[in-house]
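Figure S4 source data
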Amino acid sequence: MIDPNVHFRDWEQSDKETVAHGLMTATVAGFTHVFDMPDCSPALTDYDTLLKRLELTNKPGYHIYAGLTANPVQIEDVLFTCMHHYPRIAAVSLFTGPTIGNMGVTEKEDQLKVFKTLARFRYKGVVAVHCEKESLLKPELYVPGKFETHSLAHPPESEYESVNDILTVALEAKFKGLVHIAHASCAQTVAYVREFRREGLRVSMGVTPQHALLNTEDARNHDRYLKMNPPLRDEANREAIFKSLLDGCATWVESDHSPHTLQDKEDGANGIPGFAGMLVLIEALRKAKCSEAHIEELFCYNAARAFGIEVTDRDLYIPEDYEETIEELRSEYPFHVW
């Protein structure tokens, strides 16, 4: 299987996880290809750091995204690096909210400049966008330790208005690549994806197990540490996200695997381990009468086509006893949500 969105740690964050450990747990869960996001520390935004990241493993199934900033020179450098190290550096990623490494491109006019630069260099690959509109955040509503209030501080409109901005500027810039909306969490995001596809824009959408299966009521249980970005939503939004997997609007499933230490989680860090949840979601889709062929598209073939990588039958291995596999994964993370 393929997991197109993981946040492996290492280097300055090796107390949380290393790339070697992340790959080990991915393999246990049946994932032969993973795509690692650039918001590690240091961030993957330049030639030297990108190549240094690749040196951590020689496994061909380990791919990374290069992070974009608003600087056209940096974008050109990143695209050159991608071209010469594809498919290990498989795509680029854009963050519209605050993040590390000067990657937070928060203003719409700067986002337009990014897509115009990508179009000017005729980039036709994947741009994975983490959508969050900073001006709509309400951090004063978050109550430390009450993880359900994170959804108040990061309301649905902070996601879907950012999605609207990104798809608007991509269309205006005449961008010919694939705009991927990462970890969709609300119904209006799904609606915007459908709308802009009708406008002729190439748009894909990722869904995580947590946003498809859990809601804000689950986050009230402190011991599950269900705090992440985007946050869990209410039941109506959760239902819309799960339905998007069944009706074909969602392009693929992605874990958004983002481990932390237990103390980090107590202190309010965003992110949860994700591989076990992928297996739980497969079972939930089967119970919802989703066909095996469609599950294979969601967990392998759609992403393989988007990134232009070849897959074989071994890339569709799903552990037969998924509950036993989950127990094995849970032993790696004592606070694992699944």
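Figure S5 source data
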Amino acid sequence: MSQHTVGINQFTCPVRIPEKGGGVQHTVATIDLQASVTRGRLESCVSTMVTLLGRFLPDIHAGIFPELLSEICCQLQAAEAWLTMRFPYFIAKKAPVSGTISLMEYQCAFTASSAAGGEPLLSVVVPVTTLCPCSKEISAAGAHNQRAEITLAVRPLALIWLEDLIAMAESCGSSEVYALLKRPDEKYVTERAYAQPMFVEDVARKVAQKAMTHTDIAWFTVGVESFESIHNHNAYALVDSRDLKPDAPRG
């Protein structure tokens, strides 16, 4: 019997995400949920999915994906089910000199499939600063710099906190980005970026090197996009761990 992929997209709801420090963060998630079902199950698909999501709210996090996707498959007699949950995650961050605290927002996502047992892929989008090495080399004073975004997606072998993935990526740019800086902080981050010029390829390579040594990461991709300040285009680089070693697990 033929299968049809149906589901719901852009389902927004409040969720609670466990924090590394032991707390719980309240945020708002956008969920896409699909299943491969036979024609006879199409009419009940949406109501079943919304009901099941409601049962787990507001504690829809990566730890319950296996149970949720298993329930979807069971109730809809689905061959497979997929879920993607995107949400902003906030971390209180201290400015490097003044110690001023402000909230930094990071876009995060969990993606899972019942075919993989419901174990999720984790991804984080982390802003950093990149300063152009060739601009620094050819200029008598200064060098152009810009904000860039690192998108790191991993298949974990064990629990990996979002905070740790964000910190891993954040440490690999020319400088970190902050929501609030005082004058001494601005001086610090400007000079730090100038001392650490990087192309997007350099940033991607540095993140990949750190991810390769993490014992709880089975597979990863890292993409870096630089929003160029003197070009009418962006610069981009991508590294997939499957291309780095022949025995790397398939993503």
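Strands lie at 3-18, 24-38, 80-94, 101-113, 121-131, 145-156, 175-176, 217-226, 235-240. The helical segments are 42-56, 65-76, 133-138, 162-170, 183-195, 200-212.
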